[in-house]
Predict the structure.
Amino acid sequence: MKYNPNQKQSRGIQRTQRAFAAAMFKSLAEKPFDKITINALCQRADYPRATFYNYFDDKFDLLNFCWFKIAQDIHLNVNDVHLNRATIKEAFAQIYKLFNSYQSLLLSIIENNPIDSPLVNHFIRYFTQIIYTSIKSNLNLKAIQTPTELVAQHCSSTILEVLKWIYLGQHKVSLEEAENYLSELLSGPIYLEDNPE
């Protein structure tokens, strides 16, 4: 992003960024991402084009900011805690609840942007990376030989696969059921014999 959202910001900057993010979300609920223009976003946000470029390089940069704003509600920081099933389950529950709170927005975006579209793939990659980074930074794998990066990738991908199946596939699943799915998938639901006869 052109402007670092982690830096302390004035109210004016926050207001401007929120206006552009709201314009993007409203536009995504009405049309495919590739049909959204910078001019239309500026008109909807009620700011000139030059202001847009003060904060964002392009509409993909604004999209990253939108995902960043959603992700701020996820608190995956489990520093000083050995990452185990309980902490992964807790992280999953936070993301499940977050996605649930944005469900109507996600559904309206999917109506205009197919599940296999670049927009949805961008969303999935963004959140997979957030989860991956959090898990990787908190893993302590002394008991197994598998590389940390591979374990983190496996866990983050599995979490996102469950969430994709629920929210993008529009399956009505309770948090408890979703946690059971995740637990089984991480444990290995397929049991293969070494020497089948």
